Every structure is written in structure tokens, then in C-alpha cells.
Amino acid sequence: MGTEFERDHFYALAAHLQTVLRPAEVLTLLLQGESSEFIRLNQNRVRQAGRVRQMDLSVDLIQGQRHARATLDLSGNPEGDRAELDHTLDMLRAQLPHLPEDPFLHYAAQPHDTQQIRAGALPPAREVLELLGAAGPDLDLVGLWASGAQYVGFANSLGQRNWHAQPSFNLDWSVHLSPALAAKAHYAGSRWDAAMLEARMADLRHRLDALRRPVRRLERGHYRVYLAPAALNEILSLLGWGGFGLKSHRTRQTPLIKMIESGQTLDPRVTLVENHAGGLTPAFTAEGFIKPQRIVFESGRYRDCLVSARSAREYHVPVNADAEAPESLELSGGDITDIPGTLDEGLYISNLWYCNYSDRNDCRLTGMTRYACFEVRRGQIQAPFESMRFDESLYRMLGARLVGLSTERELLIDADTYRRRSYASARLPGALVEDFALTL
User: Are 100 and 84 in contact (CB under 8 A)?
Assistant: First the structure.
């Protein structure tokens, strides 16, 4: 994966900086980098292709309860990067006396070394393009292919060294029949399987055939629905911001306030885990703390909060997360294998769009259905329906009105590439829900 050079270069820079530190200073370093390939597709043709190889280093100089931070890009040239870091260190030293003390400054004081270099099998881009071309030469296919190695390193002047390297690929695409009609699909992971892409293209074509039927307009009301993993991911992603963090719970700003104050629960089949080992994120935080696997919900009951370093210092509890939003969320699967047959009469919701809170204290969410969503009768897809707005409480969706969860789960990797490829992922089943409210 080419990460040995980056690791050795990073550790050499850390060793150099350790020799020029003054007695009262502590230094932490966080390296984030990637060697990635990107292809953008439009009308199933390559419109843009390129490779990105980048490393950026965050430097935090600490003296007592004061600290100053800077981030710089590394070139990979030892002499040039050392000179740039020496200059950065001088700049931070000049700033430090003028900064206030930080009462919540918290970093790992007991060194704990780790190294995790995960194996993977990534395909050449040509193979992916050939498969897409063969499966859909007539399709208006739009998408993004991203693949390659991502790596994170931590070092401090106390002697701690941590390294994490992870290969992955992410193919996120949609096929459009018209400006208002499209079907979306994705395939992500660390080990490529051409048969899996072929199966997803075949499923996409099946949905496109159904999408060509006359679109139906639904009346607002309550429906039996199946929320596909991508749709459920939109709901849990919104819940993650403010729902799972210790700070939001202690300040009573969490949308799960009824769980911590009134004992509200979800269905006993709901178990949510922040599983760092199962995602793309490293097992250590930006401050050098080791992250344990954390069970957020167990048997429908809220169990543990995600605790960042600053919240840990403020509330005197151990650190267990880099940030107080999930990065590697997993929901346990259920026993539904025949999704259309179990749904029987209802709606198949592939994706949701623009989710937001309509009543935060009741954990009530609203949003729109999106892409290929279908009416199902007698276990068979009948026709697409016009986009509808939903308004539902999590306590109903994954609580009192949850019929069941699918056995099969899907790995969903965040397609965000702002600054760098995202490390966030989720592994989720689909959810069958009774009495789901469509309001507009």
C-alpha cells in the first residue's frame, strides 16, 4: 500500500522534534494521509480521473495548560519537512505566552503504542469501468469511484507511537431516467468482488424497469414501510449529531432526552455499536487515547455515551471516542430474509433526503423520500410513487412500530472527499416499520 515510507518518515520527524523540545514542553503530532484514485462518471463515461497523494500534519505544542496548534502539508522530503517543522515550532513558541490556559486540555500521558496495517484487495480502475460499461452501456449513469490507502499516525514527545493504515474502495452511483426519476446504488469495502458489483447492477436494472411504470401519487397517511439500509443511514446519521455524545447528554441537549430522563426505550432487537475495529477509523484519538469498542444501545436501552478528550476532562470520565458522533456505527441484523414478501402490502423506501428534527425533544424527524421508492402489493413491486415527506419519532420507527430488521447488512462508506476521503462508515440492516407517517 506504500504506507511504510509515510510511517517511517513520520516517525523520523517525530524523533527529530523530540530532540529540539525544551524541558517544559510537550508535543503531539497527528498525521493524516492518503494515496487515492478518483474517477467521476457521467452518462457512464469517464469525465474526470486523477490520483491524489497527500499528507498533512497537525502539531500541538503544550506547556502546562496552554497549547498552540498548526497544520501543515508534508512533501515527503526529509530535509524540507524538518525545516518546515522547525519553523512551525518556533512560530508556536512565539504564540504560546499570549494564549489563555485551556481548562479542558487533555492528552494521553501514558504511552500506548499500536500498529494496525489492514490487508485488502483493491481492483484496478480499468476493471471497474469495464464492468460498468458492460452492465450498462445504455444507461445514463453518474457516479464517483474512489479507492486506495488511507493512513493515520500519532506521536508525542512522551514516546508514544501509533499507526493505522486501511485500504478501501467506494463506488457511489445513480442511473437517471429523467430529471425526476433515478435509482441509486453503492458498493464499498476493502476486498473487491466483481460478482457483487454485477449483482448490484442487476438489482438496479430491476428497479429501473419498475421505475418506468406510471408514477403514483400517494395520499398522506400511515403506511407499512421498508427502510433500506441507505434510508436508515440517513436517520441514524442525523441522530448521531447530538444524540450519542456525553456533552449533549450532560447539558440535556440530546434528542434522546426521554431516554435519559424518562426511561424511554427502543425495541429490544435494537443494538447499536460504535465498532472501531469494523470500520475505517484508527483505534486511537487525535490526543493519543486508545478507543475501545463502545455499545451505544443494547437491547433497546441507551447504555454508553461517546466521550471525547475534552468532555472526558470536563466530566472526569474515560475517553472512548475521537469525536462525540459515530464514525463506525453498526446495527445488529434481524431475521428478515424475504424483504418484499415480509413487507407484503406497503412501501419500499430506498433513500431519504433532507432529514431534520421536527421535534427534537421527542426525537421526531422529518425528511423526504428520494430516488427509486416503490409501492408493493402481495410482495411484488408495483410502481414508483411521488416523493413524500415523512414525520416520525425514532421511538416509533425503532421502537413500538418496528416489525423487524433484515438479516443482511450493508457497509456504507461516506462518499465525502472534502480535504480528504472520509473515514466514516456504517454497517446497517434494513428496517420494516408499521404505521409510518407520510404527511405531505
Answer: no
